[in-house]
Predict the 3D structure of the following.
Amino acid sequence: MFYYLYKLYGQEVLFFNLFRYITFRTVGALLTALLISFICGPSLIRWLKKHQGHGQPIRDDGPSSHLLTKQGTPTMGGSLILLSMTLGTLLWANLSNSYIWVVLIVTLGFGCLGAYDDYLKLTRNSAHGLSAKTKFLIQILMSGAATYGVMSLGDPALATSTSIPFFKNIFIDLGYFYIPFGIFLIVGSSNAVNLTDGLDGLAIGPVMSVAACFVLISYLVGNHIFANYLQIAFVPGTGELAIIGGALIGAGLGFLWYNAPPALVFMGDTGSLSTGAALGVISMITKHEFILAIAGGLFVVEAVSVILQVGYFKLSGGKRIFLMAPIHHHFEKKGWSEPTIVFRFWIVSIVLALLALATLKLR
């Protein structure tokens, strides 16, 4: 909305010229989302507590300490992230940019799926909501539609291509295989964040570090001068994605205010599925899909730990690689305190995000 003040009145009121700059609007979206979180957070948490009774059901097979420390905490706090992020984006982004709408629709779509899953868990008083097959099918359908939309909106020369980190202007054209590649990217990113969301503040910290990484990447990829200098793909219009990334960071900071140990609210699948999907779509639009695997390496490790644990358990007749999966529970079992795990995982995530950004120059 504020962008149109520049378009309509920029020549008459010099102050409105600030709204033409992506950097200014990114900061504005971040602060707006943060403010909305602070304003709406307390009342939303009270409402969730009132209507959820015993709060989020705790896994019976999880760490025993969670039954004592986390019992009664409301879930679906991801709705606060979605509200803050969406309003921050709508207020500060150029809404004629189609990429903005693709990311918002996918984010809200995965958020609604996560909210329904959370709702089923609450009504059944069980840690199990939607069946895995149903959840994956819906995710695949939404991701396929999103991938097709991104392909249709982008430059035909790059529509089905992906860039390779550390190499200058080298792309792999996947052709029709780009659709299953895009589905895997979005679904994988969404569920990897979901698996990471097991301790207070653990998932939202890395989400913000990866989002910050792609705020810069979006800005650079959407700027012809910087893209040419760094010898990366120039994708017109992607600069606006920095605004949605900034809004996600602000919403994440606001949510962390209430999710810091001991958490007043959990994000639930409402927040984890949606934020992961948002990061996946943004990486696809900017043609830096493999950079997501580097910046979000922590999410990759969490997901791989579950895959290895389940696979080895079945093949070995009941043996385990880790004391418990995902891997953050393994460290809990080894005696690490929850804040220690969270802060150390945050440090790893920040380092990985910096490494991902370094690949833009190391080519």
